[in-house]
Amino acid sequence: LAEIPTVGRLFQAKQLAPVTTPFAPSKTLNNTISIIRNDITKLKIDCIVNAANESLLGGGGVDGAIHRAAGPGLVRECDGLDGCDTGDAKITSAYELPCKSVIHTVGPIYEFEYRKDSCRPEQLLRSCYRRSLEVAVANDMRSIAFAAISTGVYGYPSGQAAKAVLDETRKFLEMPSNIGKLERVIFCNFEERDMEAYKALTPVYFPPT
Ligand code: AR6
């Protein structure tokens, strides 16, 4: 974990352009958040969050990469979970992965949910992150890394996703009952466009101190 820099450290090292933000700067919160570009299956932390589908039985993208790296034990355990609703999250062991547990969340299919109600994709994406963080805390996880849920084949625009994710995460970490529970929350991106979105938006939600 010490090798993964937090935004607290990055903001100290770099002079950032002034940001307009309604959020108070917090050294503690900034030392909790990391933005990295990596293969999430390589992270030696407590838990990683998979962008699954409602069946929980595997698929392409990061889901495929996680199942391949974990080995067949993972799909056997997932098979016993009776699927997962969109916006919810369930935890399993990590099998051959270097992390301890995997949290599987199901993000919204952007266009499908948007057609029902334009607010639904954001509500469901926020719910994915909130539920994953709740499940992590309930299972005594101290460090968690998120793949960029829904921004691949499910089509959620990167910038809009990053806004909802950072806002929901800040709110979660600030709740009195959650303070001190998570040592590190890592946003583990794969695509440059997600990195750009997080780099631009993190100082708004976690302003430099
Ligand atoms: N590590 C980190 N991020 C990754 C990795 C990796 N190894 N591989 C891909 N990504 P997606 P979704 C990024 O499509 O949009 C599956 O078939 C990827 O570049 O994996 O939520 C499921 O079974 C993108 O930025 O998930 C579902 O059916 C992000 O992970 C469906 O896809 C999410 O892209 C879920 O779609």
Descriptive report:
The structure is a single chain. The chain has 209 residues and is of the alpha/beta class. It contains eight helices and six strands, in the order H-H-E-E-H-H-E-E-H-H-E-H-E-H. The protein has a six-stranded mixed beta sheet, sandwiched between helices. A hairpin with a 7-residue loop joins strand 3 and strand 4. Helix 6 crosses helix 7 (158-174). The longest helix is centred in the middle third of the chain and has 19 residues, at 120-138. 43% of the residues are buried. The model has no long low-confidence stretch (mean pLDDT 96). Bound molecules: ligand AR6. The site of ligand AR6 has 25 residues, from strand 2 and helix 3. This is Macro domain-containing protein.
The outline comes out as globular
- Binned strand content: 15-25%
What is the terminal separation in angstroms? 22 Å
Derived from helix and strand composition plus strand pairing, the structural class reads: alpha/beta
| Helix/strand order, N-terminal first | HHEEHHEEHHEHEH
- On the 0 to 100 scale, the average pLDDT is 96
Q: Output the strand order for the largest sheet.
A: 1-6-5-2-4-3
Q: Summarize the biggest pleated sheet.
A: 6 strands, mixed
Radius of gyration: 16 Å
Chemical compounds bound to the protein: ligand AR6
Number of strands: 6
The helix tally amounts to: 8
Q: What is the share of helical residues?
A: 40-55%
